[in-house]
């Protein structure tokens, strides 16, 4: 019985020593993701001397390739910080830098013909052309791509309001999104007229000492044009949902197509525009 007790004690000591040896294993984490298990024998300025578990041969591991060492004692020594993993979201964010999309404008008017989706897209195209002509440092998403992506997600100028700007930017793969509202109201017609007078001299008489005489002729003309009151509002957001630029301005002139000059004026004064201060 006594001999059995001695045997059990010896086995317990053996298992304890084995467990202790297992616990004392050093782990070297490489920047590549590899983990080396064994014993760190020495550390110098440029490398560590390492011996793998179950081997007696010593190896030299370059410190520039090592992330950290977790010693068997539990202590951790960081050699080089591991680079953050490259995620699909990070790649998408990098690809969207300095890209801008203009969504179809919201149209407000007392004329039904000016509140259609077609009119909203027409103003959208005008704005895109203005950004291409009057700004620097941006990649402008073409309207066909923008509208196709919106259509695939069942979004139009009205339903897009259910999405946050950062969600729309992510959907379109851009850093900046331009929202616009065109308020164009018909105010009736204006008539312009003018009158001119001409003098036609008669043929001179043979008697040159007498003055020649003539007659006056008067003519008048008039033109009528439609008169519109236009206001353009433009808001630009980034992919974090922050407002980058916001402006509202009354239109130049009274004709329907004068909204183009107003849009050019506003675009030139955006952060990327030719007239930005």
In short:
With 277 residues, the protein is of the alpha+beta class.
What number is the mean pLDDT?
82
Number of helices: 6
Please give the largest β-sheet.
6 strands, antiparallel
At the fold tier of CATH, the topology name of the largest domain is Rossmann fold
Return the structural class: alpha+beta
Rg, rounded, reads: 40 Å
Instruction: Determine the strand fraction and express it as a percent band.
Output: 35-45%
Shape: rod-shaped
Question: How would you describe what is shown here?
Answer:
The protein is an alpha+beta fold. It folds into two domains: 24-83, SH3 type barrels, CATH 2.30.30.100; 90-189 and 219-268, ABC-type transport auxiliary lipoprotein component (Rossmann fold, 3-Layer(aba) Sandwich), CATH 3.40.50.10610. Helices cover 27% and strands 36% of the residues. The strands form two sheets. It has a six-stranded antiparallel beta sheet with strand order 4-3-2-1-5-6, with no helix packed on it. Strands 7, 8, 9, 10, 11 and 12 form a six-stranded mixed beta sheet that branches. Strand 11 (214-238) and strand 12 form a beta hairpin. It is rod-shaped and about 120 Å long.
């Amino acid at each position: 019985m006594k001999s059995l007790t001695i045997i059990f004690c010896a086995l317990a000591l053996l298992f304890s020593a084995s467990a202790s040896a297992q616990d004392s294993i050093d782990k070297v984490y490489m920047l590549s993701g590899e983990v080396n298990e064994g014993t760190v024998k020495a550390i110098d300025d440029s490398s560590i001397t390492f011996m793998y578990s179950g081997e007696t041969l010593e190896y030299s591991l370059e410190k520039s390739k090592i992330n950290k060492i977790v010693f068997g004692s539990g202590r951790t020594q960081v050699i080089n910080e591991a680079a953050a993993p490259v995620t699909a979201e990070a790649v998408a964010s990098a690809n969207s830098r300095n890209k801008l999309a203009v969504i179809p404008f919201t149209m407000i008017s007392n004329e039904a013909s000016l509140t259609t989706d077609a009119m909203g897209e027409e103003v959208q195209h005008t704005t895109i052309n203005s950004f291409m002509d009057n700004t620097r440092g941006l990649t402008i998403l073409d309207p066909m791509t923008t509208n196709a992506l919106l259509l695939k997600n069942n979004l139009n100028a009205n339903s897009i309001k259910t999405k946050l700007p950062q969600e729309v930017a992510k959907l379109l793969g851009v850093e900046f999104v331009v929202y616009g509202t065109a308020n164009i109201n018909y105010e009736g017609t204006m008539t312009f007229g003018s009158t001119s007078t001409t003098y036609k001299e008669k043929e001179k008489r043979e008697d040159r000492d007498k003055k020649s005489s003539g007659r006056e002729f008067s003519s008048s003309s008039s033109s009528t044009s439609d008169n519109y009151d236009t206001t353009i509002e433009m808001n630009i957001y980034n992919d974090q949902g922050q407002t980058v630029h916001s402006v509202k301005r009354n239109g130049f002139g009274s004709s329907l197509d004068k909204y183009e000059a107003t849009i050019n004026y506003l675009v030139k004064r955006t952060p990327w525009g030719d007239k930005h201060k």
